Each structure stands twice: as C-alpha cells, then as structure tokens.
Amino acid sequence: MPRFDRSHTDDLAAFITASPTAYHACAEAGRRLEAAGFQRLPETHGWPLAEKGGYYTVRDGSIIAWRIDEPGVDSFRIFGAHTDTPAFKVKPRPDTGAAGWKQVAVEVYGGVPHQTWLDRDLGVAGRLVLRDGAEVLVDVDRPLLRVPRLAIHLDRGANEGRALDPQGHLTPIWGLGEPREGEFLEFIAAEAGVDADDVLGHDLFTVALDRPAYLGKDEELFAAWRLDNLTSVHAGVAALIAAERTGTKVPVLAAFNYEEIGSMTYSGAQSPFLETVLRRILGADDPEHYAQTMAASGMMSSDTGNSIHPNYPEKHDPTHRPIAGGGPMIKVSANQRYASGAEEEALFRRAAEHAGIPWQYNVNRNSILGGTTIGPISGTQLGILTVDVGLPILSMHSARELCGAEDPGRLADLALGLFEH
C-alpha cells in the first residue's frame, strides 16, 4: 500500500481527466475556484479595485487568478505554469483519406515524440466558436482515432529508429469508405450539441485516452498524459485556494496557453496579458506605484523537467541527478534558458523551507541544450525576479508520462510556501 496521503494525487488525476485541452483546463480550474468563492471577471467588464476576495479571468486557453486579503497591495507572488501539451491538432479541413480508409488531417503541435502516439486509441477534444461568438467545449472521450503503425513484416527496419514523416505517416484513421467534405466537423458539432452550420472556427486536438494510474509494488509512481504541465496548473489552483495570511502580498496563478510552441500569441507568456491584469489589480494608472510593486515581487515558473533516466544516465549531468520521487527541482542554466540565479535560488529555498519539503537541483548536461520555459519570457516581460522550478518526470511529451506519486503534493506545498512566506 502507498506510504503517503494520496488525496492530492488522486485529485490531480481527476483534474487531468477533466482537462484534455488548455480550454478544458481553464474551465476546470475556474470551476474549482468558483466553488471556493472566487469570482470570474470578464476582461471587457469593469473590475473591482483592490477589493478583498478571490478573482480570475480567462483568455484563449490561459487563466490568471488571484486573491486579495487586505487593501494596500505592496507586492505579488506569482506561480506560473502552462496549460497546453504537445499533440496533433486537427486541420481546418479535416476530411481526407486513402485506399478505402477515412482519415482526419492533423498537424503536429509542439514537440511530439511521434512513436508514442502510434497504435493508441485516441479521442478528440477542444473548442468550437459559433456564429454568435459563443465558445463551446467538446470532449469525445472514447476511442475515435488511431494512427496505425506499419506492420513489422512490411518494415523490417522498424526497430532501427526509422523516422516518420509527419505529413505522410501520422494521419489518423477513423472509418472505412470514401471521405466526405464536412463529415468530421458535422460529427464533432453533433457531439457538442450544436448545429454544424453555426460553427465558424475550431481548435481540436487528439487526446490520449489512457486513465491516470499508480504504478509499482508500493504505488510510488504515477502515470498520466499531460503531467507536463497540469501538475503545475493543479498545484497552483490548490495552493491559491488554500493560501491564507498573505497580507498585502497578493498571490497570483498565471497559467498560459501556447508554451509548447513558443508563447507568441495574444494570450501566451510573451503577450501583455499578465502585465495588463497586474496593472488592473493595482487599480491606478500610477507608473511609480507599479514599478515599486514589481520590484518587491517574485515569480516562480513551474514546469516539468527530466528525471534521470536509468537506461540513459549518460544524457544527464553527472553531479546533478534529480530523480522522480525526490521532490521539486530548481532549474539552473548559466545561459538563462531557466531564469534562476542566486537571488532566485534564495526565493525558491525560502518557499521550500516554509513548505517543509525535499527538493533537488536540475542542471542540463553541457553537451545537451535542453528545453526552456515561460520563466525567462515572463521575467523579461515584467522585469520581475523569477525562478524556474518543476517536477522531475520520465517520458516528457509522450502520450503517457511518469512521475513520483508523492511529488505533485509537494509541488502544491511549494506553491503555497511561495504565496505565504
């Protein structure tokens, strides 16, 4: 039996299941926040000026939430994350096919390891935008699509690392017969309960259907799709709801869409979305007040990182070897691919000490560049002290990722430590 309180990880599993896309993640986060007394503020409406309470706003798959405990805001404590995940995105005209098979035309979204999506039962989820401007979420949570692998009898080099052509080899099948223009979107509209003629736009993605699960003799491992980066979104929501005694320090959750493709959108981390919200929270067009507040603020950018891999230890730095189950990591890069230095490490360690959790360092091997996060982007956009953190996982960007089962709760404790210390 597990040797820890698994209530947080159980709740993460429910959050992941309810959040197959960035748009669903915002809706589920909003639902949880509203159940805790938070109020949604549309960007087009007037906002209460620094009034006590919890609030959130949503833009295009990104969500920013905050709570004010008392008037006189003097700083922000921001926990940053991202809501999107590498997958296949349905093209505007999806109906295609060949050799008697109906297929759905897709495009690669983000850094997808192609092989992990082969021979899996896939659903489809996303949003439809209607003629009247309404947005409708849809989730076909059952086997619908499949990207079939070429049988080894026809591909004797299958185990020799053969590359897949994203255009020719990754188009999923969904039926037999000749494709008919409009058939797929008619089906999706019917699933959403709307008239296909009213759908003027769509953002639809393939969905890995395997349910989250505990692994191992002692259930000390946790596997799911979208650990990158719903572990951080969920941790931030849980910490924001639990935050107390924050005084004039305002805790903020900022979870952005489009991180996996560079964040260059009107709602991504490179947009003015977060800065605009922070200025509205302060409630006054006072550059001096804003500058002083930001100078006293801090941000923790949370995203998953790579646990040391037992089959490929040579891919990791020999003196920094984070492992799943060892607690959150602080990510360090001399070239600032992660926004962490001495001041930032102190911010992280104070939060970790407040939370009473174990933690680790993550440094990329010199010969391997590694990824990056929203941390350097948001830190640069805002001119704010920013530290990069995250959980160590295996199989990052796969259709099935793996982490230590106790680590998600520790990450939420770290976020709460940031908010309350």
UniProtKB/TrEMBL annotation:
Entry EC no(s): 3.4.11.-
Cofactor(s) for this protein? Zn(2+)
One Gene Ontology molecular-function label: aminopeptidase activity
- Record carries keyword Magnesium: no
User: What are the alphabetically sorted keywords of the record?
Assistant: Aminopeptidase, Hydrolase, Metal-binding, Metalloprotease, Protease, Zinc
Do you know which SUPFAM superfamilies this protein is assigned to? Aminopeptidase/glucanase lid domain, Zn-dependent exopeptidases
The entry assigns this protein to a family as follows: Belongs to the peptidase M18 family.
Q: What is this protein called?
A: M18 family aminopeptidase
